[in-house]
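Team,

Forwarding the record for the chain on the shared tracking sheet. I've put the sequence and predicted structure together so nobody has to dig through attachments.
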Amino acid sequence: MICSLQQAQGFGCRSNVVTHRRKPLVQFSVLPSISVPKVPSFSAVSLSKPLHISSFETYGSLEIESKRKPLVFCKAYEVDRPEEGGLEKVESARKVKIGFYFATWWFLNVIFNIYNKKVLNAFPFPWLTSTLSLAAGSLIMLISWATKVAEAPKTDLDFWKSLFPVALAHTIGHVAATVSMSKVAVSFTHIIKSGEPAFSVLVSRFILGETFPMPVYLSLVPIIGGCGLAALTELNFNMTGFMGAMISNLAFVFRNIFSKRGMKGKSVSGMNYYACLSLLSLLILTPFAIAVEGPQLWAVGWQKAITEIGPHFIWWVAAQSIFYHLYNQVSYMSLDEISPLTFSIGNTMKRISVIVSSIIIFRTPVQPVNALGAAIAVLGTFLYSQAKQ
């Protein structure tokens, strides 16, 4: 009795199975004297896509089950739909980030103002002091870019053209504020500079054509009135110091507006943006500083400061220069996340800590009426921030 192995022709599945007629690969008899090893059979179907069937019953049950219940459930809307509470978490994280920037910005600004006033008391040359601040920041960023600590920005000629008005406003505001602090107390300068939101609204209204709700305009009344009251009752009032603070307010408002516009659509981050701003401002300021004061006066003043203060004076100059760059760098990182008006609000609220700390450290005499004017100006700033929401 001879048996043969042949390829099965479908096991009852005639719809999609292609049959291949071929001769048997091996023939063998059942006689015990003949032993032939089993050779696996291959077909075109088995080579392209193996077919595994354990039994007829299993195959049938799988076919029926596949008709009853799909193996995979696809819900496309689950992919596009955000997780519950996801937007709230993102917004909370953003607020925490901005709050951290503001706290760091204010702390570094207090340290800068303390050392800046110490330097100006011993070395009354605000133009050179302002130049050293910009030079220190520029040097820090150049070293950071050269050592790959920070990624160097990719800029072009259009970027520097758009940056020039920002750098010009920044230079004017920086020098004007330094001149003011060289003539009057730090607290008085910052009380006057707390009126920056008023300048921001006026510039936005009459130059940029923006309009604001009536509560915003009404909030300017206590700001302007408080600053005026504090100025009239200031014991050490100086017109140069007063005008320097006012010019600084106006210049920094333009700087903030131009900065926000210049940063839109640019791949330069806030940190690198301020670094480029420092470099360009340094180029603008240096020739004017030399023309106004000059190396001869600087040499005499430096020698006098070293004689009176000692080596600590060098540390004061280095500290005020470094902390000036750091606090401005953090403020521009904040400007990445907020509007120019919100930036002005944060800049004004920062002055509370500067005013209080400077009065304590330098023991500045303050009359009750002067303190009342400062409090009214700060209250006006708070009302302004509420009206803007």
